[in-house]
Records
---
Amino acid sequence: AMEGSAGARIREGDCAVLKRGEVFKAVPVLRRRKIIFEKQWFYLDNAIGHIYGTTFEVTNGGNLQPKQEVEETTTETKEAGTDNRNIVDDGKSQKLTHDDIKALKDKGIKGQEIVQQLIENSTTFRDKTEFAQDKYIKKKKKKYEAVITIVKPSTRILSTMYYAREPGKINHLRYDTLAQMLTLGNIHAGNKMIVMETCAGLMLGAVMERMGGYGSIIQMYPGGGPVRAATSCFGFPKPYFDNLHEFPLSKVHSLLSGTFSTETLPSDPEDNALVEEESNGLTEEKQTSLQETEEEPTTEAPMEINQAEEQETVDINAEDVEFKENKEKENKENVREKQMKQWERRKKLTETAALLREKNADGLIVASKFHPTPLLLSLLEFVAPSRPFVVYCQYKEPLLECYTKLRERGGVINLKLSETWLRNYQVLPDRSHPKLTMSGGGGYLLSGITVVLDKGKSDSSNLEALKMEEPSPKRCKVQDLHC
Amino acid sequence: MSFIEYGDTIKDGDTAIVFLGHESMFPVKVQHGTVTQTKYGVIRHSTDLIGKKYGSKVTCSKGGWVFILHPTPELWTMNLPHRTQILYSTDISIITMMLELKPGSIVCESGTGSGSLSHALIRTVAPTGHLYTVEFHQQRAEKAREEFREHGVDHLVTVTNQDVCKNGFGVSNIADAVFLDIPSPWEAIAHAKSALKAEGGRICSFSPCIEQVQRTCLAMEEYGFTEINTLEILLRVYNVRTISLQIPDLGKAAEDNSGTGFDSSSPSTQGSPGANLQQGTVQFKSGVPLREMVGHTGYLTFATKS
C-alpha cells in the first residue's frame, strides 16, 4: 500500500529525521555529504539500507555504525550514600582535567569508556544517593555518547521538531494545537479541503498525511507562491501531489465577485521563477528551501535563525544567483517553453478556480500570520454547509473579533474558542513528577460548523441564534453572586 | 452519509445530529414515518429531514427551529450514549497524532467501551486501514458492533469479545499502533508488543492514576519499548464576552466631564449610551475562561517498538 511506512528502509534521496535525545533535525539522505547535528559531524552513507528507527554510533571518521545493544557496565560494587550532608562542593571532586578528557576524546576512545572513567575519577560518586548517581550517569552519557537515531518523518516528529527549533516559522503553533486542528477539522481520506497557512507548509503536510492521497486540497497562498519547505520534509510519494492545488489569495475577491480571469494574472519574472521551481519537483530540498529563503526577510525576525542555518542560507543564495543566471540563458533560447509553462499555469489556475466555485469544500483550515477575520469571512464562502472549520492564531484577541464578526455574518454554529495546555511528566520509580518546564503558549483555536445561510432574514435569525447559543450576561452575574 | 464519507443530503437510515443551540444537541436515526420530539416541537423525518441538505435549518411544529448536522466522530463523542467513561476529542487528537495514524494504519484498541475513540480511529485509518478492538464486556462489545453497522463503518473494524490481558488482541505482527484504556495496562504490554508489526510501531496507554502509569512504564521498559513519554493535555475553553468596567469617580468628573480619555461610545458599545455617560464605563471584548474546567482526564503514555 502507498501508505505503508513502518519497517521502511533508509534510501538515498529520502528525507529523514535525525534524533538525539529530544532534539530532531530533518535532512536529505545523500551520499558523501557532511551533516552537522548537535555538535557532531558525520556522513549518512552507512545508514542507507538500514531500517528507520535504527540507532547509530558516530565513529571517528564521521561514519555511522548501528549501535550494538550492550550490557550496561555497572560499577562493580553498588555503593551509594543516603543523603548529601557530607558532600561539599569544592570543585575538586573530578580528578580528570579538561585536558585529560580532551585527550581521551582525541584518542578516539568510545563515549561509554569516557563516562566510565569520569565515574571512576569522581571522588564523590560513591557518596551520592542512588538517584543522584543515576542522574550523573545520564547527564554524562548524554554529553559523551555520540549516538543518533534516524527516524521516518511524520507529523508527530516534524511538528515537534519545528516547535522546538523554529517556532517563528510556524507562528508558534504547538504540536498539540496542530493535533487538535486535524481532529476538529475532521481531516480524513476523501475530503476536499481548503488550507490557508503560513507555517512553512507544516500544516499542509499534516493535512496531506491524514488524507493519505485520497481527496483534494486547495492551498490558498499569499504573495508569489505557496511555501512548502516543511511539506517536502514529509517525503510524500508523488501521487499525493496530483490533487494538491494552489490558488492565490489576491484572487479570492475577484473569484467571489465573479470578475476572476486568468488573463489578469501578475506575470512578473520573479513570480514565474517560483512556479518553474515548483514544477521542477517539490521534493527536492534545495528548491523548497530556496522558496523559504525568499520569504524570510519579510516574515522572520533574524534572531530566530541560528548561525549554522544562516550559513546554509547564504550558500543557497549564492547558488540561487548562479541558478537564475543559467535559467536566464535557457529562457532566451527557449521562449516557447516558457509560454507553454505560462499556459499550463493558467490552465491549472482555471481548474482550481472551478473547484472553489463549486462552493462545496468539506472544511477550512487557517493557520497564518495574517488577521484571521478577513480570511474567514471570505474563505467560508467556499465551504459546504455542515462542515467543520478551524482557525489558528498565535494571539487570542484577533479570534475574539473573528468570533464576533462570524456571529454577525451568520451561517456558523457551535463556535468555540479554545486553547490546550500540555504537561510532560518524568516517570521513574519514586521520582515521578511533572517536568520542570512546560510550554507557555501554543496558540489559540476558533472552531465551528457551517450551516445553510439564509440570506433573506439573516439579521433577525442571527439575533435569535445569538440568544440561543450564548447564556445572557445577566444570568451569569446572578450565578457569580451565588458563589 | 457515513462517518467516513460526507454526503450532501439526509437519507433514510442516516444518523444525524439535531442541533438545538449552545452545547445542546442529540443524535437521531433518520427513518421514514418516524417523528422526533424536541423542546421546539415535533420533527417529522419523512417531510422535515429526508432529502434535505445537511446543515439546513428545520422548523419544528411549534415554530422553533433546529439545525440538522452531518455526523462526525467529534459530534458523536459529544452525543453518544455512555456505557462507560469515554475519551473526549482533546485527548483523542493527541493520541491520533502521537500514534502516527493515517489512512492505511492498522490499529489495536482495548477496551472498546462506548466507542468514542473507536469512531475517531476508524475515521482516520479509512479507507484502507483497520481497527481491531477488544472488549471483555459482552453486552458492550455487541452494542459497539451494532453501532459500527449503523454508521456504515463495520467493514473497517473487528470487535472481539475477550480479555485483552489474558488473551491479547487476537492478532499478531500486523499493527502499526496499539491503544490501551484498561485498568491494568501493564498486564497487556506483552500482548501489545506481539500485536505490533515486527518492524515496530507505536503504543499509547491512558490511565487516570500515576500509580498505573508507573507500572505501565516499567512494563514498557521491560519489554524493550523506547521513547517512553508521559504527558497530559488540558483543554481551556473561553467564552467571548463584552465586558463593561465602571470608571471610578475620583471627583474629577465635576471639573472635566468629557476629557477622561475613555471612549464610552466606542463602536462595540451595546449598552445604553446614556447610562455610560452618567456612570463612565469602558467596554472591551474578553475571552473569559469557564468557571470550571476539566482539570484531569488521564495521563497518556506513549512509546515506540523498534
---
Amino acid sequence: MELIMAIAVGVLFTVGVYLILSKSLLRIVLGTSLLTHGVHLLLLTMAGLKRGAAPVLGGQADTYVDPLPQALILTSIVISFGVTAFFFVLAYRAYQAHGTDEMDAVREEKQ
Amino acid sequence: MNNLVVLPILIPLCTAVLMIFLKEKVLLQRLISVFSGVLNVVLSCILVSRIDGNGIQTLHMGGWAPPYGIVFVGDMFAALLVLTASVVSLAVLLYSFGSIGVERERTYYYTFFHFLLVGVYGSFLTGDIFNLFVFFEVMLISSYALISLGGTKLQLREAPKYLLINIVSSTLFVAAVAYLYAAVGTLNMAHLSQRVAEAGQGGVLNVIAILFLIVFALKAGLFLFFWLPGSYIAPPAAVRALFGALLTKVGVYAMIRTFTLIFVNDPDFTNGWIAWMAAVTMILGALGAVAYNDIPRILNYNVVVGVGFVAFGLASGTSDALNGAVFYLLHDMLGKSLMFILGGLIIAAEGTDQLKNMGGMIKRYPLLGWSFFVMALALAGMPPFSGFPGKVLIIRGGLDSGMLTLSLIGLGSSLLVLYSLIKVFRLAFWGNEPGTEQPKVRLKGGTAVAAGLLVLVMMMGLGAEWVNSYVTQAGDVLGSPELYIKAVMKE
C-alpha cells in the first residue's frame, strides 16, 4: 500500500513541478496546490498505513492509526489553504496591473 | 518551567490582534506599537539575564512533558537573537513612522509588522520541528502581506516570485519533516537529537539532513539566493530593513540549530556541503554587490554575503568559529537594518536609487554621510566596530580546521563588501551635485534612528569583551548538544 501511495505522491510532485515551470501564473498557482497535496499524502504515508481504527477513543479497538500525522496534515492544509487563497488574489491583482499573466512578459516590462 | 520564555511571542501577538480593531486610529497604533516594542526589549533583557544566572529556560506548553508536548526552549543563543531582533524591530518601527506613509499604516501595516515578529521570535524559541514550520509560516505569510502591501506595479511583479519560492521551500520543509518522522518517530528537537544519535546518522538520515539544508538555504539565501536580490527591491525601505535584518537570519538560525543539535553525527559530510555553499555564496554575493549601480541591489547582495559568512562559521564547527558565528549573526542583524535604513534615507533624500544621478550629498546631509561611512567600515569588519570580533573568530576557526581557501574567500569578500559600500559613499556623498541645487528634504527622525543603531553597533564593537561573555555561553550549548538535551528532557 505504501508503494502505491509513494507512486501517487511522485506523480503529484511531477505534475506540480511541471506546472510551476510553465509560463502562466494561474498554472503556477495550481502547481503549488498539487505540490501541497503531494506533500500531505507523503506525510500520511510516511507515518505508516497500518490498519487500525480511526483515532477516536469511543470504539473498543485494539489498535489505532497514528493520530500525530493527521494533526500535522490538518495544520498544514489550513496553512496552505490560506497561502493559496492569497496567491490567487495576488495573481489576479498582478494580472490587473500588468494586463497579462505570462511571467515572461511581466519580467521584460521596463519599470 | 518558566513562563518568561513565551512572553516575547505573546506580546507582539496580542499587539497585532489589538491593531486590527484600531484600523483608522494611526496615532494610537503607533503609540501601542512603540510600547509593545519597548516592553519586548525589556523582557528579552530579563530573559537573557535569567539564562545567564540559571541556565537554559524551558516551558512545557500545557504541562505536557517533552517529547509529547510542545516545548519552548530559551537557551542563550535563542535569547540573544530575540533581544537583537527586538532592538532591530523597534528601530525599524520608529523609522517606519516617518517613511511608510499613512495609506499603508491605515491598511493594517502594524498588524502585519507584529505578526511577522511573532513568527520570528517563535522560530527562535521553539523546541519542536513542526512548530518551527508553523512559526516560519506565520513569519512568511506576514512577509507576503508586507511585500505586496501598497500594490505598486513593481511590488505586484516581485511578490508572486517571492510567494512561489517560499511556498516551494515550505512544501519541501513539510516533506523533510515527514521523512524525519518516518525515520525516527519524533518531532521534539532534543528527542530527535537523541534518536538520530542512536540510529547512527547513516545514509537515509544524511539525505534528510541535506533536504533540511536545502530548505533552510532557500529561506536564508545561502547559495540558493537567486530570489533574494529581486524580491527585496520591491517593498518600501522600512519593510526592506525588517526583511534584510530578520527573515534570512531566521533561516540561518534554523540551519545552525539543525546542524549543531540534530544532525551532528557525520560532521565531515554535512559540514562539507555547508562549506562549499558558503564559499559560493560569499563569492557570488560579493560579485553582485560590486556589479550593480543602484542602492537597493547593492544592499541586497550585501545581505547574501553576510549569510555566507555565518554559514562558513557553522561549517568549520570549532568552538571559536561557533562563537564567531553567533557574534557575527548578532552584529549582522544590527548592521543590516542600519544599512537598509541609511539606504532608504539616501533614496528618500535624493528621490532616486540610481547612483549616477547622485552626488555632493555630504554638504546637505553631513550626519547621514558619516553614519553611512562608519556603517560601511563596521560591515566590512574594521577593528573598533562590531563586525570585527565575529570575523576574527570565524577566520581563526576556519584556519584551525584547515579551511584555508574558505578563509581567504571570506577575507576577499570583506574587501569587496567594503568596496561596494564605499562606492555608494563616494558616488552619493562626494563629488558635485548633478544639475541644479536640490532642496534639503526633511528626513523625519530617520537620521536619529540610524544614529541610535550606529551607537549600538559601535558599543557592540567597543564592548566586545562584555558581549563575548554572553556569546560564549551560546557557543557552548551549540558546541555540546547534550547540554540542550539535558535541559529539555530532564524530567
---
Amino acid sequence: MLFLTRQLLSKRGDAVFGRALRQASKYSRSNALSTLAILEQRDGQLVQGSLSAVTAGIKLGGPVHGFLAGSSVSTAAEQAAKVNGVEKIITVENGAYDKGLPENYAPLLVENIKKGGYTHVIAGHTAFGKSVLPRVAALLDSQQISDVTAIEDEKTFVRPIYAGNAIATVESTDAIKVLTIRGTAFPAAIPEQASTPIESGVDAKSEATSEWVSEDLAKSDRPDLSTASKVVSGGRGLKSKEEFDKVMLPLADALGAAVGASRAAVDSGYADNSLQVGQTGKVVAPQLYMAVGISGAIQHLAGMKDSKVIAAINKDPDAPIFQIADVGLVGDLFEKVPELTEKIKSS
Amino acid sequence: MSALRILVPVKRVIDYAVKPRVNKAQTGVETAGVKHSMNPFDDLSVEESVRIREKKHAPGGVEDICAFSAGPPKAQEILRTAMAMGADRGIHVEIKEGEELEPLTVAKLLKKSVEEQKSNLVILGKQSIDDDAGQTGQMLAGLLNWPQATQASKIEFGPDDAVTVTKEIDGGVETVRAKLPMVITTDLRLNTPRYATLPNIMKAKKKKLDKKTLEDYGLTNEKRLKVLKVTEPPQRQGGGKVEDVDGLIGKLKELGAL
C-alpha cells in the first residue's frame, strides 16, 4: 500500500512529500526486514524461473526489491516490474555482468546489499545462484542456507540434507541471511499488471579475474526440465543412446513432456548430462514423472520424489521405484513404451 | 608457469550407498556403526590432482599435492586413502567426534591453510553428500579473492598460468578461463577415480600426516546456524501395480495426471 501511495504521489509531482515518505520507509527499513531477490537474465531476457526468489521474498514479509545486472537489462527489468508485490527493481547496466562471473558479480551484490541495508538475500539454487551466492555470503561473513524448501519465519528455514533423506530445520543467527531456494518449492511469481519503479544500483566496478570463453547449451523444443509439468525420464534400461532417443523422445512428444535421465543413463552416454535428475543433477517436481527403466536409487529419488504423480515402467518387479510410484507397470519397456505412446497419441 | 602446489580438501561422510536414518532425538542422522567413506566429489578432486601430475597436464609441473581434512579422528582414514591415490602428504585438523563445521568455518580454515602451504590451486568437491550445501569452494575463493570455476568437467592448463575450465551449468556447459592461483570444484563427469592398490595403501602409511587443531589456525567452531530439528521426509506410499498399458493410462487419468 505504501509504495502505491508513493507512486501516485510521485506521479502528481509532489516531490517534497514523496521524499519524506521515502525517508520514513528508509528509516523503518534499517531496523526491519527487507529482501533483495536476485533475478537472472540471459541475453537481456528475464529468466522467468528466477522470479521464484520474489515468491520466497514475499513469503518473508517486508519489502522485496529485485536485482538485475547486465549490458541491456531494461527489457528484463520491465518484465520483472510487472510482478505484483515487488517494491522496486534495481538494475546495474554494465556488460561486465552479462555472464554472471562470480569474481565481479559477488562484489557487485555485496555493495548493493550493504547500500540497501537488506536483511535477506535470495537467489535460486541454479547454476548461477550456486556459483555466486556462497561467495557473496563469505564476503558478508554470513553462513548461507542452500536449497531452502520452506520458510518458517524470518530466521527459520527448512532444507533437505543427505539427498533428501532427512529434512533439517535451521535457525540463522546471521545479521544478513543469504539463501538459495529450491525453485520447485517456490513457484515463480507471474508478471502481471504492476509497474514497479526501476532504479539504478551501485556499480562496484570490481574487476573480473576470470574470463568467459564460450558455452554450449543443449537445444531442444521440448519444455525446460526444471519447470515442465510433465517429465519422462529414462535410465540404464534403455541400453543405448539410439534406443533412448527412439523410445523416450516420441513418448515425451506425445505427452508434451520434458526429457530427463538417471545418472546411469548419463554416465553411459545415452543422454546429455544437463538432463540428469537427482541429487547431483536437477531437482524436479512436475505433475507427472514417468520413470522408464530406472531402478530408483537414493540419489535419483532425491531429484524427483516431490513429483505429484509418479509412474514407473520397469521389468524388475522388485525395483525400489515401485515403492514410491503411484502407478507401476512391470514389463519390457521396449514393448510397453511404444504401446503407451501410440495410445496417448490416438486418445 | 608456476609449479602447482595443490591443496585438496576431503571430507569423511556416510557412504553414498547407505540410506541415512534420522535419530530418535531428531537432532541429526545416525552415524554410529554406519559405513563412512570419502565424499564422492572429493574422490574426483584427488584423482584430478594426481592425473595433472601423471599426465603432465600443467606446463610448470606439480610440486606438491596436499590432502586436507577437518573431521573426527577417523577422518585420517580418508586422508590415507587420498595419499594411497597419490597425494604426497596430509593435514588433519581434528574435530571432536559428533561435531560438525559449517562451510564458512571450513572456508576460513582453508584460507589459512592455503596461506600456510603456499598453495596456488585448490580443488574441492562441488558439494558434500551429507550436508548438500555446495558452498565451501566458492566461499574460499571469495575469502582469498581468487577466481573460481565450479562444477568442472574439464580442466586444461595453458601458458602464463592460464587455466581453462569447462563447467556444468543448467542446460549445458560453459567454459571460463582464469589465472592461477584459483579455486576449482569438481563435477561427476570430470574423471573416474582410481582404486587405491594394496602396495599404494602400504606406501601411504609412510607418508607424512600432520595433526592440527582449529586453535592452531586461530579459529573456533562458531555456529551461525542452529539446527532446530532433523526429521524424516514425508514417506510416499506406492500406489500399486497395474496389469497393462491400458491400466496405466486409466490410473493416470484417474489421478488427474493425463
---
Amino acid sequence: MDAPKKKLRVATTSLAGCFGCHMSFLDIDERLMALLELVEFDRSPLTDIKHCGPCDLGLIEGGVCNAENVHVLREFRRNCKILVAVGACAINGGLPAQRNHLDLRDILAEVYHTSPGLAPGSAIPSDPELPLPLNKVHPIHEVVKIDYFLPGCPPSGDAIWEFLTDLLAGRTPVMGHGLLHYD
Amino acid sequence: MSDSPALPVFILDDEEIPFTPGQTIIQAARAAGKYIPHLCWHPDFAAHGSCKLCTVKVDGRMGAACTVEARAGQVVENRGPELDDKRRTLLQMLFVEGNHFCPSCEKSGDCVLQATAYELGMMSPHFDHFYPDRPVDASHPDVLLDFNRCIMCELCTRASRDVDGKNVFALSGRGTASHLIVNSESGRLADTDFSVHDRAASICPVGVILKKRVGFATPIGQRRFDVRPISAQVEEDI
Ligand code: SF4
Ligand code: SF4
Ligand code: FES
C-alpha cells in the first residue's frame, strides 16, 4: 500500500583526503545493497557525475588544502541540505595539517626543486591548470557551515553504517563506545 | 562488638555517597566507584583545579569537585546534559588549543583527554584551531617531549617536584602563551637529571612525555580505553 519512497540523493567527495574514508564507507560491505534501496548517488568518486546537483546529503572527506578544494566544498554546501564532515581530516585538518607550521614555499621548493634525485632544471610546478595550494590546511567547518561530524581516521564501516542509518531515519546520530574514535 | 560509626553522606546524582570528613567530593566519589570527569586531578596528588572538567553543581552552585570538600547533606549534580555540555566545550577548547592529531599519536587509545572526549560524545572540536608550533624536544636518550599536546595539568610538575625531588618541569608565560618548559639553562630535557624511571616520566595523561622506542606496542582493540570506557575504570590508576 505504501507508494515507493523517493530515494534520498547523496553526494560524496574527497578534498585533501586519502580516500580512506570512502574505502571505509565501502567497508559496510553487503549493507551497501540495503543502502542503495534508500539512496541514489549524485557526484561522487564512485559515479561519473562531474558536478554536485541538489542533494539531501553530502559527505565530505579531507580538509581544505588548495583553491579547488574550496570551490568543490562551496558547491557541495550550495547543493546539499545536510553536509557531513567525515573523518579526522575534514574535522581538524588531520595529519596533512602537520604542514601548518612549515612555510609553504619551503615545502614546495624542497619537494620539486632542491631534493636530491630530481632531474636537472626541476622547478615548482606553475601551470595555471594546477590549483594553488593554500598557506595552511583547514578543517572544512572553517570554510562552510557543517551540520554533522563523524570522527575517525577513518571512521569504521560500522560507525559509518550506524551514522547513516540514524541520519536516514531522522535521528541525531549517537556513537557509543567503540564506534566513536579519533584514530 | 562495636559497629564503626556510620560515615556522613552527601547526595551525588540521587545516590548517597559516604565520606570521611576532609575528603573532597571527587575523592569520596572515586572511593564509591562513581566517575566524575577530570583531567588535572590524580588521586596521588593535591588538587590543581585547572581543567574544570570536574565541575559539578553543589547545592545549585558550580564548583570543582576536586577542590570542594564533601559535607553532610550536600546535594551534588554530576552527570547530566547541562554539565556534560559545558564539559564538552572545555574539551573542545583543549583540542583546538593544541595539535591533537590522534591518528599518529602513540598515546591514542591510552589517553585520558581522548577517552574523556569519547565518554562525553565529542564529535567535533567546534572552534577554529590554533595550530601551535612548539618544537619537539628529542634531546633526552629515553624520553621525547611533544609540547603541542600539553593540557597544562602540571601533573608532571607536581610529580617531578613532590615525588622525584627534581623540579624538571614548570609552566611559563601568561594567557594563551602559557606553556610547559624544562628547567635547565638550555631548556633541553637532556640537560636535566630527568630519568625514564621518574614518576614524572609516566604521569602525563596525554601524549607529551613519551618513552622512546615503545610506541604503538599495544594492538588496537587492547589499548586501555579500547577495552572499557573511562567511566568504567574509576578506581584504576593511570
Ligand atoms: S594526546 Fe590524546 S588527544 Fe592528543 S593527539 Fe594524543 S591521543 Fe589524541
Ligand atoms: S606535559 Fe603532560 S603532565 Fe605535564 S602539564 Fe603537560 S599534559 Fe600535564
Ligand atoms: S579535575 Fe578538578 S579542575 Fe581539573
